[in-house]
């Protein structure tokens, strides 16, 4: 069954409860929470109320490893190259860019209101949403809101918040995640006083690093509440093969990194301990929310989503704390769902992404759009046991990689001086397009950088993603290598063609990219595309490349946008080329 047909078939997802009263939806969104350093295992209430009572999506990914573009992707259901919000601040990102592109009047909160929902938000919404532009314009789509505002967003004891568009109020001296939670409890109480269903999002800043964005600049590990100071004192980041490796790994600026010394490693371990402690406030909030819903008799008709905007790395590949890369540490992230029909204590391997969450939530509300780049995820036992979803994840990024923490301000990455303000110490040329393919038979990573560097990792054999088939051991790794009985060259030809589709895809081509290459149907997976009859077709495809390294999405710098299509004809086969104009957003989006 094709994905758009599946979407239509799933409109009755919430069974009889949805038919009588639409479900409430509670969405919890943390900031920079990791999967690979085991943060969820250190949240006992999350495990008790969501992991044991809901479903864990073990192959869930963000598609851009930076908060603002990732949130734009999440709240619109559109790939970052289609939102054109690709950074945290103007000119390429942030709240002003979100408004400029027309999304402030055309994203999930607006659509939920159109479905009869009262909508509420507590916490961080956008970067670049600040004490000067908080009502210029007011963030659209909310019946009630209390937004954390720049330049104080990441100061744990100095938050400024604007309630329902009113002038900002200082919460100096109060712990920001606790303030966000208290605001959320109030909105939940307000929401339950009405007959309409509600959609409440709670977005604390934990476990993001503590950062002052105004002079005097400060960047350090997250701050935690004193009540959690005694926790995790013996914790250490898992010493995986990619933890501060003896030999350089990766490509580009990553391969040039010096090995971390013992002082930095100890700081990094403590940095992650601080992140775990900061998450305890979120964990306590999860318990309070579930208990409140239960006491009000609403728990059985409420979907609870728990996720984060992007992942996080610390010490992997010799890197300081940060994100912005396409490795699993940065893009493979938590997603837990509890609600009507969702099997408790279940783990699914279905491949899902942030692009799928807006379609999922809108569908639960009874709405439907056919222009999403994502598709609703399976929720019920029957759906989870149904046809396999697509196996691809499209990851993209434009701009710099900025090291965080106190050592991130020093001459670690070869730029700037200690204490300088701005991004002089950031790694340039961090623009790339990446592809993750995940199935029961193979798990692959393929990436093309603006510098011309390339990466390929067989993640089943190499879960730490350090043995690059384009690296110095390439010939040894490629010798005798096969996927589905086909050699490395044929595998990469398919992956590169798929990346060519995904780098500029829209709508169905994002959801079903193999059908863009094989419009007559029949090919839905990498394994199917590896049939030898297609070897010449894939060998003659344009290759994914960049013409320059840019700090944001500039179409002219993205290299070729054409790809060939395989179409059956009579008699025999012919190749046809499709050319696309991806110069801007679709007109009816704005």
Automatic annotation (TrEMBL):
Leader sequence residues: none
Catalytic EC class:
hydrolase
Q: Which residues are in coiled coils? A: none
Q: Any idea of its EC number? A: 3.1.6.1
Matching CDD domains, A to Z?
Answer: G6S (cd16147)
Extract the InterPro entries matched here. Answer: Alkaline_phosphatase_core_sf, Arylsulfatase, Sulfatase_CS, Sulfatase_N
- What catalytic activity does the UniProt entry give for this protein? an aryl sulfate + H2O = a phenol + sulfate + H(+)
Q: Which residues form the Sulfatase N-terminal domain?
A: 23-366
Can the keyword Signal be found in this entry's annotation? yes
- List the keywords (alphabetical): Glycoprotein, Hydrolase, Signal
Short name of one Pfam family: Sulfatase
Superkingdom field: Eukaryota
Q: Which family does it belong to?
A: Belongs to the sulfatase family.
Its protein name is: Arylsulfatase
> Can you name the source organism?
Sporothrix bragantina
